[in-house]
Each structure stands twice: as C-alpha cells, then as structure tokens.
Amino acid sequence: MSNWFDQLKSIVNRHEPAADDNALARAGAVVLLEMAAADDRFEAKELDMVQKAIEGAFGLDGPELEELMAEARSLREQAVSLHDFTRSLRTGLDRDQRDALVGWLWKVALADGHLDRFEEQLLRRLADLLGVPHEEFIRRKHLAAERP
Hints:
Number of domains: 1
Structural class: mainly alpha
Distance between the termini: 13 Å
Low-confidence stretches: 13-19
Order of helices and strands: HHHHHHHH
CATH architecture: Orthogonal Bundle
Number of strands: 0
CATH topology: TerB-like
Radius of gyration: 14 Å
Number of helices: 8
CATH superfamily: TerB-like
Mean pLDDT: 86
C-alpha cells in the first residue's frame, strides 16, 4: 500500500495546476469518509483509519489535513452519488493505486472490528466503480483482515 501512497504523493506534489491535484485528494478523502459512514455511524477507529490513509497518501498534516477533511466532509454530505469521485480516481490513479485504495477501504470498514452488510455492499460497489477485479477485491479483504 505504500506504493499507492508514493504514487499519490507524486501526483499531488507535481508542479501542475493545484486544482487537479486537490480534486484527486478530495475524491480519495470523500470515498474513504463514505466508507466510514456506511453503517450510519462514524466510529472513532474508522475515522482514525481514514485520517491515517489520507496522511500517508497525500502527505498532509496539521491545518492542511484539517482543511482537506472539512472539504471532503462537506462534499460527501452534498453528494448525490459517488460516481464523480470514483471516476476521478479511476482516471487519475493506475491499477495498482486503485487496488491499494480498495485495501484502505477494507481497513476503514474493518477498523471497528465489525463488518456491517452495508459496508461490504458499498465496498463491492466502489471496487467495481474503481475497476478493481473481484479477485483483487477479495485479496485486499484478506490482507486488511490479517493486518489491521
């Protein structure tokens, strides 16, 4: 998963228009937050895992991380669908990065020690929208369960 982080950091840190980089970071954060809320409650352990994923993936901390989280929360609350976010991630990330993102989604879902049926349902849908094959989806599930 660190490979996903390294590649996302390189995308975010490139000297290209900041709007594109910020959009990718926000899209990732929105999807991770949606996973944390899939069972209709934000558990502290799930939110900690979301923050850990965002910190590692985007190299953000302190005020930058707080700002990204606030933007992502607002976007998530206003969103009618996750399709725009997953489309950005699918086109902005390569296959390995998308696979790693699914691994982080599993870690968020499993962070509270319970996999709710709505969490698994959302994860299946997100993996499909991200273009992650079923066998990789299952592999990432097992990896996340082995290494919390």
